[in-house]
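Chain A, query sequence.
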Amino acid sequence: MDRFVRSLYQPPKGSRKGDNGRLLIVGGSRDYHGAPVFSLLAARRFVDLLYFYPAEKDPYLINAVKRMPEAIVVDSYSSPAIRGKLDCVLYGIGMGDAEPPLPKQKTQNPKLVIDGDGLKRVKGKIPPGAILTPHENEFISLFGINGSERNVLAMARKNKCVILKKGSVDVIADGRGTGKLETNHMHNQGMTKGGTGDVLAGLVAALACKNDAFTAAVAGARINGHAGDMLKKRYGYNYCASDLAEALAEGYADLI
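Chain A, predicted structure.
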């Protein structure tokens, strides 16, 4: 049993709709319809309310999202449905060249997870307390150095954020004063498929709604990796990102 997964928030008896996580996903574009869908699929079993703000007002993108009954589409951060009510925002998935603004943060509420094209928008101006989820090339582009354990921790400390550097071994560092570092070795070659990073980002953002950012990042990486290993046992390497998203709840249950 993983101690980070075991420590995740559990909905208390008597809680009501919205008490156990409200997540907004900002992203998508004419060229990348699938990326936010993968994140939404990953998050939908781990939060009460799930919102989507399209980075680009493309009808194909919006229709793709609306096929998912759990997703509520909004047109801005000031929408009455979400104004002042969010626990976390995932920013950047499949954004392409669209440029919606980052949400304004007040004492890290809502929390902020930045992935994909969103990482290009925050180069040199990373919001303190955010969770970044770069792969190796994105890490190098952001910081100009490779993603070794030492460098990931150093950049997390410098920017007072949490970094989940994805790779054959995930490196997760907490630079908000604690200096904690964890790794995740649960992976397999089936997880090289397009969209699996979007799945991970959606899961981490969902967990961040009701958990500390570092706990959400470590637990998300391990649940995601374990779900992939479960799929490998059943299908070999012949599974895709949507299969991974659908397996996350079972992976979580199996780990605890």
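The mean pLDDT is 94. Residues 16-255 form a domain with the UDP-N-acetylmuramoyl-L-alanine:D-glutamate ligase fold (CATH 3.40.1190.20).
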